[in-house]
Amino acid sequence: MSDRTDTRAQLRRLAERYLEQCDEYTNHEERERLVSNWEAQYERAQSIVSDFKLRAGDPSGSRFLEVGFGSGIQLLTFAKAGAQVSGLEVNPVLYEIATECFAREGVEGELHLYDGSTMPFNDSTFDFAFSVSVLEHTADPDRLISEVARVLVPGGKFYLSFPNRLTLREHHTDILGISYLPRAWASYIVRKFYNRNSVEELNLHFVSYLTLLRSLRGTGLRIQYEVGDAPGMKAFVKRVLSWMGIHHGAFLRTIMIVLVKSEK
Predict the structure, then answer these.
(1) Beta bridge pairs of residue 129
(2) Which domains does the chain have, with CATH numbers?
(3) How far is CA 63 from the centre of its chain?
(4) Which of 44, 59, 61, 84 is the most buried (most CB within 10 A)?
């Protein structure tokens, strides 16, 4: 068995352990989608670190925070890239799995189980913050973003990624158009017509670029527009959108955006 195959099998076992101990992902298709995502985590983590370096900066030697570290694989990869890592998680099973992963790899990291509200850190603690596919599971995105702003140093950066509400197929349920509806309506339809309880089980909320803009008010965080110097229509469109004050991620299936804390 190759190392890659062995790693994927190990991650599948961890995903199945998580599913066995949590009252989430009771729908078969959603469970299999989660397991498949976990199987690919090591490979995906490497590409995320590369993208982070390109868009936010080199994490090596930095004080680095991940909000919602899940299995811990992404945070572990940032630690191996030289970051001094800390992480927050609300799910005790995921916290346990991530702690074991760090111990097994012999990598240092400060992992915290917290209440999802107040982060257990002083103001201006971190150079970078990072959060992928967490904001849509947060009932109060304003609170999460304001807390990240508080713990970032002036000039610090927050790499944030979440599924776009405006995508045709909702990311977690794969149901066409469901995220366009108010949450209560979506929950009723998913239960009534699909016999699933995904919205409540996954604490699923539908987040758009406009949601993010509202959450940024008064935080001191601003959007970093990514235009680039490459010629072509794509770069031209990015420049026009940035001139209009719109990040190009607003129109993508997954919004990936870098926020910068004011130095004042």
Answers:
(1) 65, 158
(2) 3-261 (3.40.50.150)
(3) 18
(4) 59
